[in-house]
Design a protein that fits this description.
By secondary structure, this protein is of the alpha+beta class. Helices cover 17% and strands 35% of the residues. The chain is built from 2 helices and 8 strands, in the order αββββαββββ. Strands 1, 2, 3, 4, 5, 6, 7 and 8 form an 8-stranded mixed β-sheet that branches. A hairpin with a 5-residue loop joins strand 3 and strand 4. The longest helix is centred in the middle third of the chain and has 15 residues. The radius of gyration is 17 Å and the shape is elongated.
């Protein structure tokens, strides 16, 4: 193909660049995070379409974001900001034509993170995961 080389980092950065207006942690959360926050993980973009000659025509970037807070309402507030930032948005990445980001239903409710204890308390933060997909092709 004559376009620029595909990089997973470029597509992930385009997706992550839309996450503004709230605290975001990428790939790992510090020991003492600032609540509420969004945790984001992305995959390496997988092939979703090929030509008859087997040339890659399109890829999908899948992402999981997790809204985390100290109360149910704080999780819902940051989740709404997250949805407003991503749903239907088209990131701009040089050399790529990208579709709109779409949420993927996962039916997971807000729940306590029993593996984490809030420092100075015996309480657990609450979280709700959200899954997203972004399709794109090289230009």
């Amino acid at each position: 193909m004559g376009g620029p080389a595909m990089t997973g980092d470029a597509l992930a950065s385009g997706f992550e660049g839309l996450l503004t207006g709230f605290t975001v942690y990428k790939d790992r959360v510090p020991a003492s995070p600032s609540f509420p926050y969004v945790f984001v993980l992305t995959n390496f973009p997988t092939v979703s379409e090929r030509s008859n000659a087997r040339t890659v025509h399109a890829r999908h970037l899948r992402a999981r974001t997790v809204a985390v807070g100290l109360t149910g309402p704080s999780v819902r507030i940051v989740a709404q900001k997250l949805s407003n930032a991503l749903e239907g948005k088209r990131p701009v990445v040089d050399g790529w034509s990208l579709g709109a980001i779409e949420s993927v239903p996962n039916e997971q409710p807000i729940q306590p993170d029993l593996d984490v204890t809030i420092p100075g308390t015996l309480e657990n933060p609450l979280y709700q995961p959200f899954d997203w997909i972004l399709a794109g092709s090289q230009t």
